[in-house]
TrEMBL record:
Classification via PANTHER family: PYRIDOXAMINE PHOSPHATE OXIDASE FAMILY PROTEIN (AFU_ORTHOLOGUE AFUA_6G11440) (PTHR39336)
Name of the protein this chain belongs to: Pyridoxamine 5'-phosphate oxidase family protein
Residue span(s) of domain Pyridoxamine 5'-phosphate oxidase N-terminal: 8-132
Gene3D superfamilies from the UniProt entry: Electron Transport, Fmn-binding Protein, Chain A
Pfam families: PNPOx_N (PF01243)
Length: 184
């Protein structure tokens, strides 16, 4: 059964820290728009307070999360136990994007390892913390992180990444604009 929490408790923080993957969901306001659901990994998630979290967002084929957050701010982050006791944890809130040329970037980026291809940091104010059983989630064993995205970003270089962001990450699949760094 679902359980609500007033905040991200110490026990839930420990659970989150033990996960190798998390999922981010956002959606546009338009009923004909596409819901976006993305897996994330690579030591990219941080708990800033019991009601505030952030993750380092790496370059991808699209930038749906950023477009949706700019339009309406709604975000859900989900963690699943793929090992140990079953548990699903969802964090609901309002998110925003912090770009490399924003003043806040210097403080937040220092919380994460330096990963080539980092394009933005997503910060979310959490207003609902909810767990559910997770007994239908299969057991998996983590082998290692994939490093293809790191090698791809290194090969592109800074100017190549900026060109890619400009070409591929300025507009969502539904035509919504995304915030982009002024450096582009």
């Amino acid at each position: 059964m679902a359980k609500l929490y007033d905040q991200i408790t110490d026990a839930l923080q420990d659970f989150i820290a033990a996960q190798q993957i998390f999922f981010v969901a956002t959606a546009p306001l338009s009923p004909s728009g596409h819901v976006n659901l993305s897996p994330k990994g690579l030591d990219s998630f941080r708990i800033l307070s019991p009601h505030r979290v952030a993750y380092l967002d790496l370059t991808g084929s699209g930038n749906e999360t950023s477009a949706h957050l700019q339009e309406n701010g709604r975000i859900t982050l989900m963690f699943c136990a793929f090992a140990g006791a079953p548990l699903i944890l969802r964090l609901y809130g309002q998110g925003r994007t912090v770009l490399p040329d924003d003043a806040e970037w210097l403080v937040l980026s220092g919380l994460f390892p330096e990963i080539p291809g980092a394009r933005q940091i997503v910060v979310a104010e959490i207003d609902r913390v909810q767990s559910s059983c997770g007994t239908g989630v299969p057991l998996y064993e983590h082998q290692s992180d994939r490093d293809e995205i790191i090698h791809w970003a290194q090969k592109k270089g800074e100017s190549g990444l900026q060109d890619y962001w400009y070409e591929k990450n300025r507009v969502s699949i539904d035509g919504l604009p995304t915030p982009i760094s002024e450096a582009i």
